[in-house]
Amino acid sequence: MARSGWGRQAKSDSKVEERFGTRGLRPINRNGLPGVIIHGALKNAFLAQLMTDWIGEYGRLCKLSCQYRGMDVPGDVLTCKGVVTKKYQEGERYLVDCDIWLENGKGERTTPGSATVQLPSRGIMPLT
Predict the structure, then answer these.
(1) Pair 30, 36: CB distance under 8 Å
(2) By C-alpha distance, which of 76, 50, 74 is closest to 64?
(3) Cα separation, 59 vs 56, whole angstroms
(4) Which of 40, 53, 58, 89 is the most exposed place for a label (fewest CB within 10 A)?
């Protein structure tokens, strides 16, 4: 996964609000926050989608974690990116560790994280 990624326009609309249970929330104007911000669970879901799209139907997402280090607001173009950091075998499982992150339009990494996926060995499909 050499610097692969995809972008998405972050929106605050009724479908997102219904999906993540944020319907009816008011903009946040306290403590220097910019107003409405993108919910952390949505950013986590974007990173999960990056990984599951990459591994395809025969891969398995074993572990995913992220940290919320910056605010993202509706209208920002958010890009999910990742790099492979380690490939290894545990028993009969072929595993890949990745550093992943969500980047805003300014190139700032607002949501860094990591993931471990299991991939089938070449010629052996599917995973059991």
Answers:
(1) no
(2) 50
(3) 6
(4) 89
Nearest Cα neighbor of 118 from 54, 70, 38 is 54
Model confidence at 1, in pLDDT bands (50, 70, 90)?
very low
Task: Note down the domain range covering 104.
Answer: 4-119
pTM exceeding the 0.85 threshold for the entire prediction: no
The answer to whether residues 104 and 70 touch, using CB atoms and an 8 Å cutoff, is yes
CATH of the domain at 106: 3.10.129.10
- Number of domains into which the chain is organized: 1
Tokens linked to 61: 């997402």
More confident residue, 92 or 62: 62
Which residue has tokens 């992943």? 100
Asked whether residue 62 is domain-assigned, the answer is yes
| pLDDT average, residue stretch 95-99 | 97
